[in-house]
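[job 0412] stage=complex_fold ligand=manganese (II) ion status=START
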Amino acid sequence: MIEFRWGSATDVGKVRASNQDQLLTADPMFVVADGMGGHNGGEVASAVAVDEMAKVETVSTVDELIEAVQQANREIVDRAKLEPELRGMGTTLVALVGMTVGERQRLGVANVGDSRLYRVGDEELLQLTEDHTLVEALVRDGRLTREEALTHPQRNIVTRALGIDEKVLVDTWELAPVAGDRYILCSDGLFDELSTDEIHGVLREVEDPGEAAVALVEGAVESGGRDNVSVLVVDVVEADGVDDEIPDDRIISIHKAVPDSVLRLDPPPETGPDDPHPDEILVDRTIQKPPFVTWRLGVFVAAVLIVLAVLLSSVVAYARSSYFVGIDEDQVVIYRGRPDGVLWFDPTVEEPVVLSVSELDPEDLPDVIDGVEFDDLDDARAYAEALAERALTDDDQ
Ligand code: MN
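[job 0412] stage=complex_fold status=DONE, emitting structure tokens
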């Protein structure tokens, strides 16, 4: 079993009227959720997320963790349908959970949005999660430097959140738990106010997780407190039944929720044929065995290939049959395809709209970030023109 010791703190900050952050400390499940949306929507969304995660009793695969997050997402979506004044509410979610995978102990991490999970390294704070934000996408593309991103006016625009769609894209990690490791889950109110060096310093100096969390939250409020601040410090006190070889970065596997990106960083350890451990049942091991070919198998394979070819052509047709208005870097553009792509068919830019994201009417922004779909190009053009008109009206005021 993994034994944790933890402590947390949260504060409304100096500017906001209410605290829309929520923390969950339900050993072995730890969650930080940062809600957004008016009319109490943010508070409701993050509270529903945390309540749903609290219901999860045991997690033994990252897929189960993803399903828990999907369930939380559905609850928020359903709640927003019931109460129209909560429409548009959403929440980020970062979760750390102790898992028993087969006979091994593991840590599962899930992330949606711009709350973060770090591990406290000897020399520095190691950010594990990747922010789902507009600026992070710009940094990844080399359009913005890390430093510019820190102060970018649109740094709070998240590109993924719970409560927006029926399904949410969830990034997950499976980690090796190591006694003595310290993790921190936090909302953006922390790292927008304190540098990672400052955060690291406190986490190295203050041994008690609760005292460390309080010190960090107080520090963030003192240096501005422009947003709600939440910090959850989780120490791994004991961990039995872990792998013999533990990767330096603790990472056993990463699953980023975009097509074709299931990464496995290290080859799996060699195990006996009767090891039931699900983690070792990997595609690359099964294909190493020579196939046992018979004519029946040949006919079957041919039939499957024909079915696949038919399916594929309809997927291509589907993937390319619509248009949507969305964002490319900082420009509004018309894409051909589907906002999240279909399989490996990413949308392509059909034509630019001469309008930058910063000019958009703020009310239009969430829709455009998600991508507004149309069956034909003319409708997409008409919508883009309407966007431009609203943007112009704003300037005139
Ligand atoms: Mn926040």
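The pocket of manganese (II) ion is lined by residues 34, 187-189, 227-228 (CB under 6 Å).
[job 0412] exit 0
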